[in-house]
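Pipeline run #58 for the internal structure catalog. This entry was flagged by the ingest filter as a single-chain record with no existing model, so it goes straight to prediction. Upstream metadata was stripped on purpose; only the residue string is passed forward. Reviewer on rotation: M.T. Logging verbosity set to normal.
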Amino acid sequence: MKDGKLENTLEILRDEEYEARLAAMLLPTAFFETVTLKGDFEARVKIILPSDQRHRSTVRSLPVLLKLCRA
């Protein structure tokens, strides 16, 4: 450090190769919704869609797994 300034610093936490690989990956889309169940119970659910389906659509059917926990 000279005159209160850093000299010859190296940014060690940035990996440009990793960032490029991550940008090329197709990550799933997640969103939350409230679903009404039998007996008028409401469940807050997290829906995770495949990378090729960025929003909900009535055109495509997907299997659903639902795990309910008592809070």
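catalog note: The beta strands are 29-36, 42-49.
catalog note: Residues 27-71 form one domain.
status: ready for reviewer M.T.
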